[in-house]
Amino acid sequence: MSDIRNVVVLGVRDVPATGLVGKEIVKALLDDGSFYVTIVRRIGGSSSRPFPESSRLREVGDVDYSSVNSLKKAFEGQHAVVEALNPSGVVHQDKIVQAAVETESVRHIITPDFSGNYLNEHIHELRIYDDKVEAHKVTKQLIQQRDSLHWTAILTGAFFDWAIDNGIFWVDAKARQVTIFGSGNQRNAYAALDVVGRATIRVLKDPKAYQDRQAYFADYIISCNDLLNTLNELEYQTWTAKNVSLDDFYEQGKKLWDEDTAKGVQDRRSTMGYIMLGTYGCFNEEDRYSTDYTGRVEPGFGWTRDQFAQELQKAIDKARQE
């Protein structure tokens, strides 16, 4: 059993209206009851309180992510650092890791991932994971300074319930339509948003099992064609397919990305270039970017087909109510 009890979470209140992943992680840690949680709010971060009062929760405010000393004060007495950072925070990875190295109590870092498999050898072609790749390199380099400090990268795949609810997934709940990219046979890893909390707890309770490696925590793996079939089995009214060719899809996305670069765009997550490159990465017919987690998911983790269908229905019902 792990002796990690004090956990500091970065990224819950970095800037207003962000911190989605961090909030889920903090909620899960508190609900579990085994951990004392510290929220770090960086300078200029939101001061609204997203959690109820708890003796197991405290906040450290106005932390300077660009200062090792400022971070060390926030890390004092902590056993683990969980990085639920938005892209603007990842640029400070060198300072964050160095502060953890210099804080003797810290024994484990969960790196700023909670995404697709950015450790794939071809991932540089997509560009959307460049910041994460660089942060990973920095982590592996700096963490070698102390043998008693280790890392884990949590890889989840797409948050299907959150994406359906926000209308940015290939499942359109109200139109009862599934977008089929290419052949529709490429399998992708899906997870409910709360997987970030479930996976974090699993790692922190048994850190040696996930020490110094990427850990795969997808809930289910399915193709768009199978997704369409599942939806037609779930509901009385027929779901239809919207077919989108992948011919020139990558080239178009890369062109838009380059245009945004020339314009000095910083936050790309809602840009068409980002969306197209990410979509191409998911549906490349040869699984060039390792979005099919078959054989990689951690033992004992994941759902049955029936469980996935139930959660999918919940996500669709919620999206239709809003």
TrEMBL record:
Source species of the chain = Talaromyces rugulosus (Penicillium rugulosum)
Family annotation (SUPFAM superfamilies): NAD(P)-binding Rossmann-fold domains
Give the family, as the similarity comment puts it. Belongs to the NmrA-type oxidoreductase family. Isoflavone reductase subfamily.
Keywords on record: NADP, Oxidoreductase
Q: Does the keyword Repressor apply?
A: no
Annotated InterPro entries: NAD(P)-bd_dom, NAD(P)-bd_dom_sf, NmrA/Isoflavone_reductase-like
| One Pfam family matching this protein | NAD_binding_10
Enumerate the spans annotated as NAD(P)-binding domain: 17-163
On whether Oxidoreductase is a keyword of this UniProt record, the answer is yes
Name the record gives this protein: NAD(P)-binding domain-containing protein
| Molecular function per GO | oxidoreductase activity
